[in-house]
Amino acid sequence: MLRVRGSIGDWPVDLTLEMDDGDWARLGAQLKVEQTEASAAPAKPLNQDDALWQIAKDLLRKAGQLSGPDLLEQLEGLTGSGASGKRLLVRLRHCPDVKVVSGGDTPLYNWIEGA
Question: Strands 65-67 and 11-17: what pairing?
Fold first, then answer.
């Protein structure tokens, strides 16, 4: 059984797929074929999410340190969306190149040099 939860736009999604051993075997075989084809294919250009992620990391790297609210404001301006800005902020929080420390009332996001 495989459960998929999330959203498509504003619509919530909660989907359960029941798969037997044969289904899993066919899926695994297909993934191996796709992986082989992908490794032989040239590097694909960045999609919009990847491009925004790179820009968000560069923004913090150049600043060195930003407070959570200041960083969120800049990310919201970058993406044009509060929700997208928050997703990037959460992604930065879990990035190995970023250290988040308590700065009193607000967290401080620090870029770790050489990480």
Answer: unpaired
Same domain for 68 and 88: yes
**Predicted TM-score of the model (pTM):** 0.57
**Structural domain of residue 29, as residue ranges?**
2-40
Q: What is the 3-state secondary structure (H, E, C) of the chain?
A: CEEEEEEECCEEEEEEECCCHHHHHHHHHHHHHHHHHHHHCCCCCCCHHHHHHHHHHHHHHHHCEEEHHHHHHHHHHHHCCHHHHHHHHHHHHCCCCEEEEEECCEEEEEECCCC
Q: Are residues 61 and 100 in the same domain?
A: yes
Q: Mark whether 11 and 64 lie in a shared domain.
A: no
Which region, left, alpha or beta, applies to residue 2 given φ > 0 means left and ψ of -120 to 50 means alpha?
beta
For residue range 32-54, what is the model confidence (pLDDT) as tens digits? 765 665 565 555 555 678 888 99
Tally the domains of the chain. Answer: 2
